[in-house]
Write a structure and sequence with these properties.
- By secondary structure, this protein is of the alpha/beta class.
- 44% of the residues lie in helices and 13% in strands.
- The chain contains 15 helices and ten strands.
- The chain has helices spanning 2-16, 36-46, 55-58, 61-69, 84-89, 116-133, 168-178, 189-199, 201-226, 247-250, 256-259, 281-290, 314-324, 337-342, 345-355, and strands spanning 24-29, 50-54, 73-79, 104-105, 108-109, 137-141, 231-236, 265-270, 300-302, 331-335.
- It has an eight-stranded parallel beta barrel, surrounded by four helices. Strands 4-5 form a two-stranded antiparallel sheet.
- Helix 6 (116-133) packs parallel to helix 9 (201-226) and helix 13 packs parallel to helix 15.
- 41% of the residues are buried.
Amino acid sequence: MARFFFIVFIAFSFFSCKERPEKIIGIKIYDYSGDYNMLVTKWEEMGINTAFVSSSLSGDEDFRAELKKKDISIFIIFPVFFNPEILSKDSTLYAVTSSGSVAKDEWVEFVCPSRKKYREAMKREISEIAGSLDPDGISIDFIRHFVYWEKTYPDRDFKTIEKACYCDSCLSGFTDKYEIIIPEFYGTVAEKAEWIEKNHSSEWNTYRCNLITSMIRELSDEVHAINKEILINVHIVPWRSYDFNNGIINIAGQDLENIRLYTDYVSPMCYSQMVDRGAEWIPEVVKDMDEKAAGKVLPSIQVYPYYIDRQLTAAHFRLCMEEALKPPSRGVVFFSWPLFEKDSSRMQVVRDVIEQY
């Protein structure tokens, strides 16, 4: 009898637990107003097995039902420090750059990462999402310091990229932690930033990275308090360790060696055409990040031209996809569905490449 129940238990576990795919083939989508069945059927035909969606779209029961029918996993994209809506209501929450300006460049607007009340609000929000929507995963986005990396090109001098955050909250937290006193005659933000960079850059970078890593840890803990099976993905600036004077640490504040402890995947946004790079750059980013987060790197690639006047033909998109899937990559995520709709021939490219794997 005991053996019978053991067999039943194993069978139940096999059929009730969703097996994680060897390679994630993902699609990012934020809004959609068409027929969900038609949309998800197209994804199934392309070989898509995971949808990375906004919290608003994931809240649509009909959409989630169609994904479930096709056995497509759902990761909810959760933006953290990019929050124009709340900044329009409370400008005191803005991060502050090394020049003393608010952290805003075109559409990119960032909240200071050290504000305790804001951090607590984000934790409550992600807990509510995990509890009410029960996703397969949460994809944490904009979990870095302010930088408009989408328009930071290879020839950019790293010294011209402004760092953040130098608001009173961050400076106070930093000086208290390391028992540092900034000389009183440095009155402006720019002066204080220059003094810190010259005298305590190592401690400053550690402090800034810890603000990001600790937020990832706290958000992950909130999610796993609801359901330990929910996977965590973190969106990463696509900079190798030798880009922009180790800008991934010194500017973005994303320390992968520590971040990896609290996440199942790290997803560099390898939008090659957007940042004026070639397809061969994509696996270089993956390999560099895999040295710090082994077995967790899931690159996201661009489907169609964006921002700059540089070609991204269907043939080149195919090459980007093939490069993105090279080991040690965990798969590929496409940015984004509306860009496929600009050129539907790229859907066939995905089908063809997936058939090879």
